[in-house]
Write a structure and sequence with these properties.
Layout lengths: L2 H14 L16 E6 L4 H9 L6 E6 L10 H11 L5 E7 L9 H10 L4 H9 L4 H4 L6 H13 L10 E6 L6 E5 L7
Parallel strand pairs: 1-2, 1-3, 3-4
Antiparallel strand pairs: 4-5
Length: 189
Amino acid sequence: MKLLDEILQHNEEFVKEKKYEAYSTTKFPNKRMVIVTCMDTRLTELLPKALNIGNGDVKLVKNAGALVSHPFGSIMRSILVAVYQLQADEVLVIGHHDCGMAGMKADEMIENMKERGIKEETLEMLTYSGINVTKWLKGFQDVSESVSHSVEMIKKHPLLAKDIPVHGLVIDPDTGKLDLVIDGYKEEL
């Protein structure tokens, strides 16, 4: 059985047995916060437990590295929607140690793309169109610096109200221990 078939079969039973009722909540976060964090599989259950958050408590935005890399990209738009439409009053950026984006080399990823069938002509066309794929795929060297960069990008965004605290933290993906990088109640950027 293929993975999608397994998922659909499980889902049919989940709905039939009304298991969804245990997760009923509203679209508004109980703790009035939005968290930007990494998509790392180790954080799926560990992060909520380490922060004492449950279903319905926060808006959770995940991407590779917990990076806010563009002020008008989808991550920033999600934060603004959470604040202005869904009653979030605070923002947390939570990176983690041993992140796959730490030290990631774009050249290696581009080679992997070529091995999977992406043609050199496609990469050249993107370059011709003004997209620096190597820069776009670049990772970071220091997770605390990366978190600080994302916090700064959010805090300085022209559409974010100045009274919204933006915090930066790093979590240990083995123990769940949090290290505070930026206390948004104290920081002025």
